[in-house]
């Protein structure tokens, strides 16, 4: 073999190595989903906990981040919010190592970066920090390779915490209750998403809208649902989460629905939603790879 041929082989091997590395990177980087809607009580926390649990059930490495000072997602993940030594607050304000703040919860099969009412302080204190909207994103860069999915539960407001979630995420999932005022406020959320997209996070997109607490016998529900589909087309997930008392009971046991009543309608709905999310993400990744080729 001449030197130049050997040299070419080395270059080819290097190219191949870089390709594999690149492939691995696209494969391994977590899909980060912010579950957001500035309305309270629309099913954000229920969706975050149960979507993450369903993703974990299909062997996806998943991390849930609680960004709501109410700490409901934390409590719904078998963690006592009153007993936290480290929380998301320490990541946002105190430069704590995110890996030290994440809890592995064997019982539910996924990891949690918890929160409690201390997080209320972050809203004000973040204002005095440079790069305040990038705090979560910078921290997540250290663990993005460790997970397939990172799902963030946002507070019911478009504040600095929600902004941190939107700046970190590559998809926004919007839970919607099909009620009279459902569409009110949606435009300010979409405006905020557009602003974040055109400034710091060009990769951000609306992953989809999910109809929650749905009652097909209620004409208002079906009317609002039809309006959503008219406005947002296939951005509306096919899965509809029904009103299901088991979903409301599960958090009082500190458990996702899958661990509480796996055969309930609520569990099946969130399992189906996770399937849709995985298929959408797979399509996106494939399209990105084709575009990059
Ligand atoms: N599909 C559902 N069926 C019945 N109750 C639900 C359902 N989704 C949520 N809930 C209940 O409705 C309340 C509000 O839901 P939650 O997920 O906390 O909303 P958000 O996080 O948007 O404030 C909670 O008490 C929750 O248990
Ligand atoms: Mg909530």
TrEMBL record:
It comes from hydrothermal vent metagenome. The lineage of its organism: unclassified sequences, metagenomes, ecological metagenomes. This is Chromosome (Plasmid) partitioning protein ParA. Pfam families: AAA_31 (PF13614). Residues 30-206 form the AAA domain. Gene3D superfamilies: P-loop containing nucleotide triphosphate hydrolases (3.40.50.300).
């Amino acid at each position: 073999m001449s030197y130049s041929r050997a040299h070419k082989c080395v270059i080819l091997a290097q190219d191949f190595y870089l390709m594999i590395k690149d492939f691995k990177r696209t494969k391994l980087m977590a899909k980060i989903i912010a579950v957001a809607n500035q309305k309270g009580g629309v099913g954000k926390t229920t969706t975050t906990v149960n979507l993450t649990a369903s993703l974990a059930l299909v062997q996806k490495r998943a991390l849930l981040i609680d960004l709501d000072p109410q700490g409901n997602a934390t409590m719904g993940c078998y963690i006592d919010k009153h007993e936290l030594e480290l929380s998301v607050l320490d990541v946002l304000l105190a430069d704590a190592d995110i890996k030290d703040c994440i809890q592995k919860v064997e019982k539910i099969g996924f990891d949690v970066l918890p929160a409690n009412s201390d997080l209320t302080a972050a809203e004000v204190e973040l204002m005095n920090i440079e790069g305040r909207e990038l705090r979560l994103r910078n921290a997540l860069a250290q663990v993005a390779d460790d997970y397939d999915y990172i799902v963030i539960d946002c507070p019911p407001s478009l504040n600095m915490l929600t902004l941190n979630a939107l700046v970190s995420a590559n998809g926004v999932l919007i839970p919607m209750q099909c009620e009279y005022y459902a569409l009110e406020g949606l435009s300010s959320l979409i405006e905020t998403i557009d602003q974040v997209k055109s400034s710091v996070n060009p990769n951000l997109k609306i992953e989809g809208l999910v109809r929650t607490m749905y009652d097909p016998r209620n004409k208002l529900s079906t009317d609002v649902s039809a309006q959503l589909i008219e406005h947002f087309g296939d951005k509306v997930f096919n899965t509809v989460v029904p009103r299901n008392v088991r979903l409301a009971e599960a958090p009082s046991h500190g458990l996702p629905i899958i661990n509480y009543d796996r055969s309930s309608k609520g569990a099946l709905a969130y399992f189906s939603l996770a399937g849709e999310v995985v298929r959408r993400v797979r399509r996106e990744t494939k399209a990105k790879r084709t575009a990059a080729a």
